[in-house]
Amino acid sequence: MKVNIYYGGRGLLDDPTLYVLNKMEEVLRELRVMVERINIYEHKNEIATLPQTMKEADGIILATTIEWLGIGGYMQQFLDACWLYGDKEKIQTTYMQPIVMSTTYGEREGEMTLANAWEILGGLPCPGLCGYVEDLVSFEMNKDYTVIIEKKAENLYRTISQKMKSLPNSNLAVRQSVLRTPQLELTPQESEQLSKYVSDDSYVKKQKEDIQELASMFKDMLGKVSQEDDVAYIDQLRNAFVPQQDFHARYLFMFADKKKPLFIEVKDEDLTIQYGQEENIDIYAKLTPEVMDGVIAGRMTFQRAFMTGEMTAKGNFKILRMLDTVFNFA
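RE: above sequence
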């Protein structure tokens, strides 16, 4: 039999949880149980990989110390890693005993938090141990407390060896019907590999740099497309422009896939072309880029596009007919 102990405290010399764990280890080793203690604070940069250490364990002990409020950040991160990257099939057959000692208020709530978390993960809970310690020396000298601790270790051994069952609990029902946290459907091997990537700071940094590079590249591409939209058709219209004496007209072309309309002003020999909204327009025309491409290529005229309905227009139609005279694409 193997039991893993995951200690979520800070490792202080006067931590009462460490004394309790030492006593429990003594009892378990006397019962020929292989015990491995993992101090989470020593693996704070690779917590995401710790759930993989439960592979060979028949049971685990989650132990932490409440110093002011809650079970502490290290233990919470470990439970998060179990939820995100742990082997759920393995957790379902693993017994867990919570050990919570406090130097302030909240040891019962801490024990219940660990038990509830393990049940929601799908694991098998064992009766835990919690207590308030005001003075560590007097706590260690009390033989009655020592007996209680030893009995808890024996109960853990008995529960695992006899594979004791427990009654159904609502936490499992809540997980099945309420908890809908999006998760990737990964095999245990894929979860293990993913946890290694997550805990690798250099890999995560490289991924962030790659994402930023891709974002910058797409941003440049979008900027380039936007820039191309702002100059589309302008050169072709300038090249086809035929100056007209005593002629002044303002046109506004609206294209289906462009946000800005194309404004054209003809005043004698002067030609103004730009993208943007303008006022006092003589002709409002609406057409598709494909129709405009056909006119520029000489396959169609503005008048023909209007007559066939491929271009709609409103305004002074005499000025509309002048489009094919002002711009000669033949």
